[in-house]
Amino acid sequence: MYTSTLSSALALLLATATASPLTRLTPRTNDLTAASLLTIAPKSNSCPAAGAKYANECRTAAQALAPIQASFQTYKITDPATQAAVISTIAFESGDFKYAIHHFPSDNPGQGTRNMQSAKFNEQYADSIPELKGAVAGAKAAGPNGIVNLLVHYADYDFGSAAWFLTSQCEKGVVEGLKKPGDAAFKAYLGCIGTSPTDDRSQYYKRALAAYGLKSS
Prior knowledge:
single chain, 51% helix
């Protein structure tokens, strides 16, 4: 569990919900490994000691691998260049997988999961997951952080938000464009998620492409 304390109502929901992490099949991830994730997110080799601020949100590359793979299977993202773009967003937004909740520069109620999407999209995302059907209403009633706390409780849903967003919120042209890696395709993708290119984001993207043996044109 990522938050140090939960409301008693939400804690009960998590204890009694029928939801379970997504079934993991064997996805086509072009030999994505923990080692390749580490080249994309260099600070993900370790986590802060227990008790450090936000330490309970941190996941290493080795821990992030399976839920990222599961998201590509669930949302049918098999193209390596597209996978690279999604991973670059997860790694950048979560600070190399260290954060599941938005903290900087200040907390923003309801914002989080590994792509740091807003409360609005977290509600849509939670509503789209059949396994959470019995828990969503109670999570909404638990307060502004109820939904995001519910999502990050499950690794597959926590790390699956970026793949969900791309396939459910971005236009087909943006999704198809990512299959031909380059600055224009990446800029269009960032526009879909509500931001714009920066040097830091571009470096994550280039490292992710390199991890798949690809280059930005």
